[in-house]
Amino acid sequence: MFIDYARVRIKAGNGGDGAVSFRREKFVPKGGPDGGDGGRGGDIIAVGDTNVNTLLDYRYSKNFKAENGKPGSGGRKTGASGEDYVLRLPLGTEVYKLEEDKRIKLADITVAGEKVVLSNGGHGGKGNSNFATPTNQAPRHATPGGHTHEMELEFVLKLMADVGLVGFPNAGKSTLLSVLSSARPKIADYEFTTLEPMLGVVRVGDYKSFVMADIPGIIEGAHMGKGLGHQFLRHIQRTEILLFLIDIASPDPVEAYRTLRAELYLYDSFMDKKPHLIVISKTDTLPEDELSERLKYIKKGFMKHFKEDVLAISSVGQTKLEELKYLIYDTLQKTK
Q: How far apart are the C-alpha atoms of 181 and 75, rounded to whole Å?
């Protein structure tokens, strides 16, 4: 199950208390103070892990606590520090601290092995051996360890891919991903077949590849959360380029493209600045003579209104797919 959102509560470990102790040795009737310091509490640490692909583990486990530090003891012995608690998160996870009506970003985990301390453990208390002075040679007090507070966190996973597929429901995005890569998304002839994002690695030649992300279809009003809007639009925020896929049977492909661009802009204006390609899909659904006239009309419309060219493909008929792969790869190289 793909889970890309979770809320959890964390608490770093408390520090151990300092000890009040005096030397007790034979022939030393008035041994000095020898209370040791308390150990430090464990931290809560987030780590990027390539073996984790979802936030499923944090959907059902909600509370995470690090170990408390141990108290100090006689002989100036410092208590053991508490064990840290490590939260292993998929790459692309943003971590937010929720505080009353505030939402504070703590981390953006994008690199494998990257470590971020989300909450520091409490400091260890000072033993009474720290407070001996010429005028107070037998102090009978020590300090307590530092106490930590519980925090509520929000995890938001945004997939990391090179190319984001954008289109209306049933535009052929899942079919294209399945043909270009080894990904096997659910494919059917009805809207919203895709209910969760899917990644696929597309090979270009022997040693070249890129990662493509398919998200559920966008509908008008997606930027306000309609359909599956907010839940999945964030997954294409990190992509290097966008690939707009438009069904050749759309009543007005130019208007369809304009609507898709508007929804992305209204959700995140930065996405309107991303490099992109426009692809007309399902060319196999039209007879050859009708297809030629239809493509002339579509290309003329895009050139007139946007000064952009389009590439027409058929995933089922395997038409122009090699050209599309190299076009995507070349665009990525220019972007990077």
A: 65
> CA-CA distance, 304 to 212, in Å (whole number)?
29
pLDDT tens-digit map of 246-258: 999 999 999 999 9
DSSP one-letter code for 329: H
Q: Which CATH number fits domain 163-335: 3.40.462.20, 3.40.50.300, 3.10.129.10, 3.40.50.10210?
A: 3.40.50.300
> pLDDT tens-digit profile of 315-326?
999 999 999 999
Q: Where are the beta strands (DSSP E) in 34-101?
A: 44-48, 63-65, 85-89, 93-99
User: Which residue reads 């289109």 in tokens?
Assistant: 167
Nearest to 66 by CA among 89, 55, 82: 82
User: What is the fold, at CATH topology level, of the domain defined by 5-157?
Assistant: Spo0b-associated Gtp-binding Protein; Chain: A, (2.70.210)
CA dihedral 180, 182, 183, 185 (to 10 degrees): 80
pTM: 0.76
- Angle at 78 (CA atoms; ends 77, 84), nearest 5 degrees: 150
Burial class (CB in 10 A: 0-12, 13-18, 19+), 68: buried
Query: Residue length, the chain?
Result: 336
Of the chain, the end-to-end C-alpha distance in Å amounts to 32
User: How far apart, in whole angstroms, are the C-alpha atoms of residue 300 and residue 308?
Assistant: 9
Q: What is the mean pLDDT of residues 124-129?
A: 95
The sign of the torsion formed by the CA atoms of 296, 246, 239, 212 equals negative
Instruction: Match 């509560």 to its residue by tokens.
Output: 9
Average pLDDT over residues 128-136: 90
DSSP 175-231: HHHHHHBS------SSTT---S-EEEEEEETTTEEEEEEE-PPP-TTGGGT-TTHHH
- Round to whole Å and give the CA distance between 160 and 185: 18
Q: Does an H or E element contain 322, and which?
A: helix 321-335
